[in-house]
Design brief:
Order of helices and strands: HHH
Number of helices: 3
Helix content: over 70%
Radius of gyration: 27 Å
Low-confidence stretches: none
Length: 98
């Protein structure tokens, strides 16, 4: 047995106490003898899943846009075409200002 054989048990107990304190603060519980158990339900699961899906899609979109930006900066042909597209978009939005 090593010198710190009970370290995992102690760390688990500390983590559990910290989680209980967080839950008690969240639910405004002052009594130290109360054990708070937070159960998951279908609504919470669905909301968390949708949030994770939106984060993943946003991250993927950001990565794609960053890649397009890097390629546009690196290659002059792409850069010129991109500038032409931006000018066309601006002209279509503002009614053909020259």
């Amino acid at each position: 047995m090593g010198k710190y054989s009970n370290a995992n048990v102690l760390q688990a107990k500390i983590d559990e106490n910290n989680e209980q304190q967080r839950l008690k603060d969240k639910h405004n519980i002052e009594d130290e003898n109360v054990l708070v158990i937070e159960k998951s339900n279908t609504f919470k699961f669905t909301v968390k899943t949708v949030i994770l899906l939106i984060k993943a899609l946003a991250g993927t979109a950001l990565l794609c846009l960053a890649t397009i930006g890097v390629f546009t900066l690196l290659y002059s042909d792409l850069r010129q075409n991109f500038i032409n597209i931006l000018v066309e978009i601006i002209n279509s939005i503002f009614g053909g200002i020259q």
